[in-house]
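Entry for the shared binder. Reason: the reviewer on the internal report wants the predicted structure included alongside the sequence.
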Amino acid sequence: MPKGWSNGLTKETDPRVARRAEAHRGLRYVRRAVAIRSFRREPLTWSRELAYALGLAATDGCLINTGRHVAFVSNDRQLVETFLACIGRPGAWIRQQGNAYRVQLGDVELYRWLEDAGLSQRKSLTLGGLEFPDALLFDVVRGLLDGDGSIAHYVHRPVLRDYPRYLYRRLSVVFRSASSDHLAWLQMRLRAALSISTPILSEARTTPNKLYSLRYGKYASIALLTKLYEDPTSPRLIRKWLIWEDFKAQPVTTRPYRRQNGA
């Protein structure tokens, strides 16, 4: 039927209107805003899950200039789903854009909570330190690692030609950011918490903005990853966690070697 077909008709003059009126008899309606509000989650309070979500938002999140919308984009759908679960929005709609997955939320409370924690609009070049309870440091760092960081694990043969049996298992953890101030803050926090340190490096890029990184060596990475994955129930990106599990499961020690001339 065309839109507006019932204008001017009543149940007394038209049987179609009468049938529809009878079908709605006894039903109670509420305003849409009230219905939505009744399904909101509990107010945001600091927890291990929210601390992890803060780390993810600081890397792959975005505060949109509406003052209420928060976006999160990642190539890992599991990471998007984990972010939503940590902030109490597991049923939010995830869109696929090419190889990436995106979710956008209209949530004033979440927006202001992220602002108070140190995030801002167009934060990539201006991000600094983050604000959160000290006890949640490693949950935040795990989020930063899963967002823009990486874990590398491989067997290195540094002198293959002269000493083919000399093997060394490498492990490294890398954090990346377009803001050197943010990495300086992270460098300071990890030095204070675990007595590990590494310089801030500038990586080559084809874009005008620089990219900086913190690259931790094998033993610093072991200390850091042991702490990050201390609790098996903590949220994490499975793909990166499995690299650490593979390192622990396949220990390869440096093998003794002899010079080829027998000396």
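Summary line for the report: The radius of gyration is 27 Å.
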